[in-house]
Specification:
Blueprint lengths: L5 E12 L2 E12 L2 E6 L6 H9 L4 E7 L2 E2 L5 H6 L2 E4 L11 H8 L8 H7 L1 H5 L10 H14 L5 E5 L7 H14 L4 E5 L3 H7 L2 E6 L2 E7 H5 L2 H8 L8
Parallel strand pairs: 3-8, 3-9, 6-7, 7-8
Antiparallel strand pairs: 1-2, 1-4, 4-5, 9-10
Helix pairs in contact: 3-6, 4-6, 6-7
The structure holds adenosine-5'-triphosphate (ATP) and magnesium ion.
Length: 240
């Protein structure tokens, strides 16, 4: 079997925010299919990398999606090419119902995966008429993931810390949903919970202070306690 093709190639991404050089030449590839993990300690630039891919922050360098350069495109054009973003704050429309939140995510011409979304998150179907602002954090995370999964022609999902602040049972549900989602989509996942990352991710990119410090296989990183500690800090010491 040949290696899966590169779906997204990030080259020499540089981001300055408030005159700080936040991303300092970040380069990595995301293979098509499955989940690639973007890891690293707090404040190293993980969220900024996702925002840089989408064009939500000014950046230099190159982001190539399926062979096409995207850095000159507007954010909405990058989204239309199939880059979906699930931000850390989930960003659901609190005053709208679950169903309205999903309808707003529909893209004209895209095949809609309501069957998949409601299979993964039956609660959302039961709560279709409920205002999203009255949902629990875990349920809001499900709405956010569902919106990204809905458009069947999305090429890659950028998912930022989906399990943060959730109860263990809800974490397990979100992990299962991500696992299923990765059967139909490519996911670039930022995850601070290392046991969650280890259970989901295949390829790993680690950032440290705005630069890539490790690229490789998740088992290589997590299987070597000293290596994991060096790249991920003390938090890595106890995981697995
Ligand atoms: N709008 C901004 N203006 C100035 N500095 C910023 C801005 N946004 C982020 N930063 C800084 O950029 C650095 C990287 O932030 P970023 O949010 O990308 O890190 P992160 O790896 O996602 O962190 P966390 O694990 O806390 O989510 C941090 O030092 C942060 O303080
Ligand atoms: Mg972040």
């Amino acid at each position: 079997m040949s290696a899966p093709a590169t779906l997204l190639a990030v080259r020499d991404l540089n981001v300055y925010l408030a005159e700080s050089h936040i991303l300092q030449g970040v380069s990595f590839d995301v293979r098509a299919g499955g989940i690639t993990g973007l890891l690293g300690r707090n404040g190293v630039g993980k969220t900024t990398t996702l925002r840089g891919i989408l064009g939500l922050v000014p950046r230099t360098g190159s982001v190539v999606l399926e062979g096409a350069e995207t850095t000159k495109l507007a954010v909405h054009e990058i989204v239309r090419r199939g880059v979906a973003y699930v931000p850390e704050d989930r960003d659901v429309f609190a005053g709208l119902t679950v169903e309205e939140n999903l309808r707003l995510a529909e893209r004209a011409g895209a095949p809609l995966r309501y069957d998949l979304v409601y299979e993964l998150f039956p609660e959302l179907e039961q709560r279709a008429a409920q205002k999203a602002g009255t949902l629990s954090g875990g349920q809001q995370q499900m709405v956010a993931l569902a919106r990204a999964l809905l458009n069947g022609d999305n090429r890659i999902l950028l998912v930022d810390e989906p399990t943060k602040g959730l109860a263990p049972l809800v974490v397990r549900h979100v992990v299962e949903a991500l696992r299923r989602a990765a059967e139909v989509a490519t996911i670039l996942l930022v995850e601070q919970n290392l046991s969650v990352a280890h259970s989901l991710v295949r390829d790993v990119i680690v950032l440290d202070q705005g630069r890539v410090s490790f690229i490789g296989d998740v088992d290589q990183l997590m299987g070597d306690a000293a290596l994991a500690r060096r790249h991920l800090g003390l938090a890595a010491a106890g995981s697995h």
